[in-house]
Amino acid sequence: MDCVFCKIIDGEIPSKIIYEDEDVIAFDDVDPQAPIHFLVIPKKHIKSLDELSESDSSLIGKIFLTIKMIAREKGIAENGYRVVHNIGEDGGQSVAHMHFHVLGGRSLQWPPG
Ligand code: AMP
């Protein structure tokens, strides 16, 4: 499958991996939009949450607990941070492998463009 994030999971494309277990991997975004900007993704190729099924419910829980753990480790939990999941064309999704952006380390504006 021609998926850049599957290639990161397989080690075919280098990345700055922050955390990895049998289900989930987290790595720095190559084009950071904040002092801290990493992505948390499932190893299973799922396009977006629009393609989730009941059997993925524990995987989603694990992704969010991973976000919490890394945010604390990186010291952004106290001041706060943002989790973003872009879905499809209008959502601004450019990589068709479900990923959660985690942005922190500065005050973020709202609303997004
Ligand atoms: P989205 O636009 O929500 O689909 O986000 C895709 C994100 O993946 C962007 O923030 C990109 O900078 C990031 N990205 C694309 N290729 C890589 C890569 N090889 N390593 C790390 N991040 C990447």
From TrEMBL:
SUPFAM superfamilies in the record: HIT-like
Any signal peptide, and if so, which residues?
none
Source organism superkingdom: Bacteria
In this chain the HIT domain maps to 4-113
Task: Indicate which residues form the motif Histidine triad motif.
Answer: 97-101
Q: By what name is this protein known? A: Histidine triad nucleotide-binding protein
Native source species: Anaerococcus kampingae
